[in-house]
Structure formats: C-alpha cells, structure tokens
Design brief:
Structural class: mainly beta
GO molecular function: calcium ion binding; kinase activity
Shape: elongated
CATH superfamily of the largest domain: Cadherins
Helix content: under 10%
Keywords: Calcium, Cell adhesion, Kinase, Membrane, Repeat, Transferase, Transmembrane, Transmembrane helix
CATH topology of the largest domain: Immunoglobulin-like
CATH architecture of the largest domain: Sandwich
Largest sheet: 4 strands, mixed
Number of domains: 3
Radius of gyration: 27 Å
Subcellular location: Membrane
InterPro entries: Cadherin-domain_protein, Cadherin-like_dom, Cadherin-like_sf, Ret_CLD1, Ret_CLD3
Distance between the termini: 30 Å
Protein name: RET kinase
C-alpha cells in the first residue's frame, strides 16, 4: 500500500538567537519517497505553538517549498522574545512549528496534510555567541541525536545534511568537514560537496533492522584542529511484507487423548514464526493477527477442547545481524 512521502525524523531541534539577521538558514528538513515519481513540497503552518493553551501568528520563520530549508524571514528582537516567552524573566523560550509534506504544491494557508513533523525552536534571550567560543560539538552537531527511520522497500534518497546551515552561514572563517564512518557494504553514501547522506538502495528489515554508523567532524581554525564523533543510527521500519513460517516446514502436530485427562492438560503444540512483526501493545493486537480456531461440526469437540495462543519476542540472525520477530505458540 502506497502511503506517500514521509519524514525520516519525527522532530527537529534548533536554536534561534536575538537579533540574528533575516535570511539566516536554520535547518534543512528532508523527505523520503514512497514511489520514484513523487516530488516533495514543504509547507509551514503559520502558527507558533507556545504552550498547550497559547499560540501566535508566525512572522519570523519560512521554509523553501522545494528544498525544505527553514530560515529566519524576520529578525527576532527582544520585544518579539518577550511576546513569545512564557515569562519575561526566562533566558530561553521554546516554541513549536509544524512542517507539512505533500507530493503536490500547497495552497497558501493549507494546513491539513496528514504528513507532518514537529520543529522545536529554542529562542535564546541573547545574541549569537562568537564562533571562537563554541566547542567542536556545538559547531558540528545540534543537541539532537542523529537517529533516523527509513521504511523498507522504498526508493533511495537523501535524508540528512550533516553541515549545520546556521553555523556555515555565521562562521565562514572556520573550516568544518565531515566523514561518515561505516562498515564496507552498508547502503549509505556521504557526499563531501553537499555534506548530505543518502540511502543508496531499498532496505529490507527482515535482513537488517538497524545500522550503526559514526559521524566524524573536524574543525580547523588556523593551526588549531578539533575533532568530535557522534553515533549515526538508522532504524528500518517494517512494511509487513513477509508471511509467517513454520520451523522446519512442520505444519502438523499429533494429539493423543487418553482417558482421565484433567482439564488444562496440553495435548499438542504448534509453533509459528513471524520475522516481519514484533509483539505490539495492546497485546490483543498481536493476538488477533493470527487466531487459533478449531474447525469442527462436532459440538462435543468444541465444548471439550480449546486452542490457547501465547506469543513472545524472539531474535533472528540473518547475515549475522539481529532482527526482532515474534514466536506464536498454539
């Protein structure tokens, strides 16, 4: 079932300082395709969420529809900060924006696309710090973990840019370069020219559920050099595309019923494996997926015997990597 374009991250974080000039790029949001022909269009809903009970019209932030670049369209001054903060004494105020995604251009005030992600902006009641005062970690990466979710069986595409747009814009006297450290053969490529990371082929969760890479950043200023490394994680999301299977192909179990058996005696068991899904909550959702039913016209059999269904999470190891699945026992 085609579900359309999607975001590889559930939320984004960025800092915004007082008196940063209009036009400063804040962050790059990416979308991945469900089918090759799709073209991504990004749209910003014109409300800043300040708290559960309070919002304000967005006069400061815009997003480029075709590239997903979020930028400052109007400088945020102290008066703006006081208006958007919960209390004037706070050194920091957090607001939230919704970014919407569609394969078609948005109408001007359209905000009803089902596909959206959250952008949390920390408004800091201070001017941007000097680049020389920032650590390598602050110059290279945001506070947010580099963790992504990519659906299996979908087209390849770019899903992240390592370079921080705001740092690149404000700290042009620094040389900041990246590398993506990974085992040979993983389906991800780093482009040094754009600092973007791309998944190069369709993924299969039943082959590998998680990829653990390292993003390495080097900052050079004159003769000084600093390096920092952070985990770069990709989780593969399941599409429920593989049927359940029986161990060793065994689809039959014999049951021998002797006289004077007590109620609750187990007569026979049959095991079914499902590498495609894991036990989910509420538990009834997993139980209903594969039900155990006695098919008979004999009322005595229906009254005397029952099928009980228990299940638990297990791990398969295709190609040496752990993949979660479910064992159903009847």
């Amino acid at each position: 079932v085609a579900l359309g374009l999607y975001f590889p991250r559930r939320e984004y974080l960025e800092n915004v300082y007082i008196d940063e000039p209009a036009g400063v790029p804040l962050l790059h949001i990416h979308a991945l395709k469900d089918s090759h022909k799709e073209v991504a269009h990004f749209h910003l809903c014109q409300n800043l969420i300040i708290s559960q009970a309070r919002s304000h019209e967005n006069n400061w932030f815009q997003i480029r529809e075709k590239t997903g670049l979020l930028y400052l369209s109007k400088s945020l001054d102290r008066e703006d900060f006081n208006m958007l903060s919960v209390g004037n004494w706070m050194p920091l105020s957090k607001v939230m924006l919704y970014v919407f995604l569609s394969s078609h251009p948005f109408q001007e005030k359209e905000c009803d696309s089902a596909t959206r992600t959250k952008v949390f902006l920390s408004l800091i009641n201070a001017t941007a710090p000097a680049c020389s005062s920032l650590t390598a970690r602050q110059l290279c990466f945001t506070e947010m973990d580099l963790s992504f979710h990519i659906k299996e069986n979908k087209p390849p595409g770019t899903f992240h840019q390592l370079q921080l747009p705001s740092v690149h814009h404000l700290c042009q006297n620094l040389s900041i370069s990246y590398k993506l450290l990974a085992a040979e053969g993983v389906p991800f490529r780093y482009n040094e020219n754009t600092t973007s990371v791309r998944v190069t082929q369709s993924l299969d969760r039943e082959e590998r559920e998680r990829y653990e890479l390292i993003a390495k950043c080097t900052v050079r200023e004159g003769f000084r050099e600093m390096q920092v490394e952070v985990p770069f994680l990709v989780n593969v999301l399941d599409e429920d595309d593989s049927p359940p299977f029986l161990p060793n192909g065994t689809d039959t179990a014999d049951a021998v019923v002797e006289f004077n058996r007590k109620e609750g005696t187990v007569l026979s068991t049959l095991t079914v494996y499902d590498a495609d899904t894991t036990p989910i909550y509420p538990l009834e959702s997993s139980r209903k997926k594969y039900t155990g039913t006695i098919i008979t016209d004999d009322p005595w059999i229906s009254e005397t015997f029952r099928v009980e269904h228990i299940f638990d999470e297990i791990h398969f190891t295709p190609n040496g990597s752990q993949v979660r699945g479910t064992r159903h026992e009847y």
